[in-house]
Amino acid sequence: MADLEGLKVSKEYYIDQPVKTLDQFFVKGAHNVDYGMKKHLANIFNPKSGNTVMFAFDHGYFMGSTAGLERLDIVLPKIAPEVDCLMGTRGAIRTSVDPSWRKSTALRVTSGSSMLNDDLSHEILAVDIEEAIRLNADCLAVQTFIGAEGQLSSLDNLSRAVNLGNRYGIPTMGVVAVGKDMERTDRFFKLATRIVAELGANLVKSYYCDNFEEVVAACPVPIVVAGGKKLPEKEALELAYKAIQGGAKGLDMGRNIFQSMHPTEMAKSIAKIVHEKYTDKEAFEYYTDLINR
């Protein structure tokens, strides 16, 4: 047994101070989930700002070798230090993400389509929960197609991922897809984000739109805004600023970072908006200063 000689008897019970209780958890809609799920969400969202910068590099699962992502082993070490969460496939995470970076990961768990298909909405839940646990994923990213031909199967994928995630304490992120024939209006995003949240997603990745504040208000979990197509850097920073001002809890930028001429500087500038309340003009000045050094 332990040596008791010289053992100090504790006397500091602070009986004059009430026992502290934890405040409501800082991630929207997550105050009633289990500790393990909160821990994963706290890995994704910065506790000080309440926001996140995600870097999406999962494009290869349906596009193959994508411009700007030809060499993950070269791109990722440049970007990872500047973001909070890395969103990728299990193959890319295993081969190209260094565990010592200590970054949260959003694991893409749906697949089954390619850029050769006319309709990308028929995906399957391709990664089982044991694999997600082995990879220590902080959330399961599930593509959802509201209003598309494959809506039923994609919502089934989401529901099954939520059930599995709840069983093992891993959050699910519903990724709202927008195909070429689908609306990109506030009416559509109010519908899509609410459906995804109602089915149990703990966070939603969606797009910025008119009346975005109303979309955010109607969604009971955090919305992270996707960067979408490649924009000029100034316009991408304007999008980031509008999204955060509109109530988004983060940005998930892919092409607007890895296809930038200065991807590291772009990631740094987006983080200034997301975490330090920079305006788009201030962030663009910061970006310009970085590239001119």
Automatic annotation (TrEMBL):
Q: Which Pfam families does the record associate with it? A: DeoC
Which PANTHER family does this chain map to?
Answer: 3-HYDROXY-5-PHOSPHONOOXYPENTANE-2,4-DIONE THIOLASE (PTHR47916:SF1), FRUCTOSE-BISPHOSPHATE ALDOLASE CLASS 1 (PTHR47916)
Question: Does the keyword Transmembrane feature in the UniProt annotation?
Answer: no
The alphabetical list of record keywords is:
Lyase
Classification lineage: Bacteria, Bacillati, Bacillota, Bacilli, Lactobacillales
* Protein origin, superkingdom: Bacteria
The protein's name is Fructose-bisphosphate aldolase
Q: Which NCBIfam families match?
A: PRK08227.1
Write one Gene Ontology MF term: fructose-bisphosphate aldolase activity
Where does this protein come from, organism-wise?
A: Granulicatella adiacens ATCC 49175
Enzyme Commission number(s) of this protein: 4.2.1.-
